[in-house]
Structures are given as C-alpha cells and as structure tokens.
Amino acid sequence: MAKLFSISILLLLFITIIPSWAKDGEHYSFLLSQKPATPRVRQKLSHLRLFWHDLVSGPDPTAVRVAQAASADKSATGFGTLVMIDDALTVSPEPTSKLVGRAQGFYALASKEEAALLMSMNFAFIEGKYNGSTVTILGRNAVFSEVREMPVIGGSGLFRMAQGYAQARTHSFNPKTGDAVVEYNVFVMHY
Predict the structure, then answer these.
(1) Rounded CA gap, 97 and 29, in Å?
(2) Per DSSP, what are the bridge partners of residue 102?
(3) Looking at residue 69, what DSSP letter applies?
(4) How many Cβ atoms from other residues are within 10 Å of residue 178's Cβ?
(5) Are 133 and 155 spatial neighbours (Cβ–Cβ below 8 Å)?
(6) In three state form, how does the secondary structure of 158-180 look?
(7) Which of 11, 89, 102, 126 has the smallest set of CB atoms within 10 Å of its CB?
C-alpha cells in the first residue's frame, strides 16, 4: 500500500511538472513572456519617399526576365513571366540622383486580364541612418492604375517588425524600352 501511495505521488509530481507547451501536441511554440516585448519603446511612423528605377534595356539592366510560360507570348498581359530585380532607389527621379538603396526581389505578371504584377521585394538601404536595414513589400501592383497600394509586411534592422503600406505612382515609362521610374511613398510603423 505504501508502495502504491509512493508511485501515485511520483506520478502526480511528474504530471504537474510537464511543461504546458507539451500539452495537446503543441510543442512547436513557447510563451516567453506575457509582458510587451518593448514596454518603454513607442512605435514610430516613418514616411519614405523614393524613386524606383526599373531598367530592362541597355547594357546593364536592373530587371531581368528569368522565366516565362510558353503561353506568355500569346498573352496581351505577358501572364506567366517572372522578372528578378535589383533596382536603384534614389531621392529624386533623375538616375544620377543620390542612391539610398536597392529594391531587390522579383515581380511576376500575374493577371490574364490586365497588366498586374505580384511584387515581392526588399528595399535594402545603403545610406544614412537606415543603412543596413530593409523594408519588405509584398502585394499586387496594377501598373496602369494611377496609384497602387501594397502592404509592408516586415523588415529588418531599424525596421524590425515593421508594418505599413507603400503607394506607387509611375513617374515615367518608356514604351519602346520598357524602362520605368516609379515614385514610392512608403509609410512604415516600426520601433
């Protein structure tokens, strides 16, 4: 009887010390703290105004087609085409203006009905207080709309845990070359 009582006590102790994260098979997440991660730091709203230079022509393009569906040539919208980018981000629309970062990622022609892109890119900053930080944009860009809005889904460095939105407006487009300059107004909440 004493042995059964001892085993019962040990079993009860074992059950009570099993971590709560192991219950119900949810062992992939852990509650670290119920306190806010940054209790005394307030979020800031930053407005970034940049010009995105997408060069598909010339000897040193910054946008290169890397994949294309067999039917893309037959499509009026180029549906199924994928383009990798490493576009300059400058402070004004002139290509010689101050370079503050690079837009690195890709865009895909993702609509059969209209010229609409799936944009996935990081604005990687190389200048000033944001040097080494990034803002990540992922969203739909209907290129012939006057203003296109895409979500900011994250960032790194000074933009860690960023959220917000980007508005794109075409500044210039050369239909012969396909080169474009787009003004981006990015509104970012960050710590």
Answers:
(1) 47
(2) 88, 124
(3) -
(4) 13
(5) yes
(6) HHCCCEEEEEEEEEEECCCCCCE
(7) 11
Q: Is the pTM of this model over 0.90?
A: no
Domains and CATH numbers, the chain: 44-190 (2.40.480.10)
What are the tens digits of pLDDT across the range 75-85? 888 899 999 99
**Averaged over 35-47, what is the pLDDT?**
77
Contact 78, 72 (CB under 8 A): yes
Q: Give the pLDDT of residue 159.
A: 97
Query: Residues 63, 56: contact at Cβ < 8 Å?
Result: yes
Question: What tokens appear for 187 in the block?
Answer: 């509104």
Return the number of other C-beta atoms located less than 10 Å from residue 149's C-beta.
Answer: 14
What is the C-alpha to C-alpha distance for residues 159 and 161, in angstroms, rounded to an integer? 6
pLDDT given for residue 21 in this prediction: 42
Q: What angle do CA 57, 152, 111 make, to 5 degrees?
A: 55
User: Among candidates 113, 115, 126, 117, which has minimal Cα distance to 84?
Assistant: 117
